[in-house]
Amino acid sequence: MKILIIGGGGREHAIAWKLKQSAEQVQLFIAPGNAGTSQLGTNVDLDLNDFTTVKAFCLQESIDMVVVGPEDALVRGIYDYFKKDSELQHIVITGPSAEGAQLEGSKSFAKAFMQRHNIPTAAYREFDATNFDEGVAYLQQHSLPIVLKADGLAAGKGVLICASHEEAISEFSQMIREAKFGASSKKVVVEQFLDGIELSVFICTDGEHYVLLPEAKDYKKIGVGDTGLNTGGMGAVSPVPFATPHFMQKIITRIVNPTVKGLKEEGIDYKGFIFFGLIKVNDEPYVIEYNCRLGDPETEVILLRFKNDLVEVLKAMHEGTLDKIESEISPNAAVTVMAVSGGYPGSYKKGFPIAFNYLNNPMEIKHMDRDGGVVVFHAGTKQADGSVVTSGGRVLSVSSMAPGIAESLELSMEVIEQIHFEGMYYRDDIGNEFVD
Ligand code: AMP
Ligand code: GLY
User: Fold this and answer.
1) What domains does the chain contain, in order, with CATH numbers?
2) Rounded to two decimals, what is the model's pTM?
3) Does ligand 2 lie within 6 Å of residue 233's CB atom?
4) Rounded Cα–Cα distance for residues 42 and 56 (Å)
5) Ligand 2 in contact with 9 (CB < 6 A)?
């Protein structure tokens, strides 16, 4: 089985690592990949903006399966491109279609979808240049804080939580009139602020059935104790202790089932992952956002606990037989801690050599088996003159699994302390809130 993975972060290294454990013999290509993925397969430089290049590569290498990591190729219709092409349509590809990817690509689409299917989410209104003045009047009487969301993709930066009416009106104006987030903020969703604790739930669906993956909580703030600026994610933990079976059942009945059913009813082609960004308010779950992909760094914990053969799951997704797959999830706890470049999420330098004896063979640290161990996933790394150097803000994701969160965090700490590169920073409190 020849598989092409699209992406080059910790999530894609974790996907590569997981696919390699399949009972099937797997040969991997990763575009663009990183220094970690190059230990598991061949990194390839493909122009992902040009699907004809991806097609040529798939035909040349007789690729059987394509796993798409980040959202942009999905929003731009890579799945539809494969489905419409007679030479590519046999290839298993993780979707969704561009239409399904609107769940992530357009907040306005996602909100309207949730409203149509009675899926709990914050109350909202949407505005653009045509009803700008109405928007300002709406903001003036809105309770504080006010949540503003750019409708389109904005690299995780398009959500603003404004403490005052003046700030909200000024940001609203910059978004619509000055294209603060480019075309993405031509339309703005104004949302009720929900006060609660967040978690993420993931499924893989074939459009009718789905397999539930482990849930996770990520830590977005740069500073210990959830302080400072937002990042792509400084670490994650799974399971999430407050996601009790009772609460998970509410999520499934009120959110997951109606979402899958709604997609089917509306004829939206959706074979792929759904990432439900949720918030728990007074013991009730609400959707904060949908993503049409797996999360990063959530993937670096959930794939440790997910015991099924991912190749088998993705084949069943393609065939529409996910009802035949029973998901098997480890009761153990996984924690991942991100080592990031100094200065991140602001400006930072790249190209620093990474010193770590085990870096060339992460699988050998404390062998990760079905019950536990440590594995170092690479994010922003690359090979340069025979050594591994930093090449991004998030550099390495140190993932552990052990019977409890505390032990798992301890394992990750033990390993991360052996890693050095200039300016390296990490949070040492990932999951600590759940440790007695
Ligand atoms: P999003 O890009 O939609 O995930 O939003 C980014 C972050 O903003 C979320 O992870 C939440 O922490 C926060 N957020 C978004 N919407 C709301 C809301 N309605 N109430 C409170 N916090 C929110
Ligand atoms: N960790 C959040 C995301 O992947 O969007």
Assistant:
1) 2-96 (3.40.50.20), 129-186 (3.30.1490)
2) 0.95
3) yes
4) 16
5) no
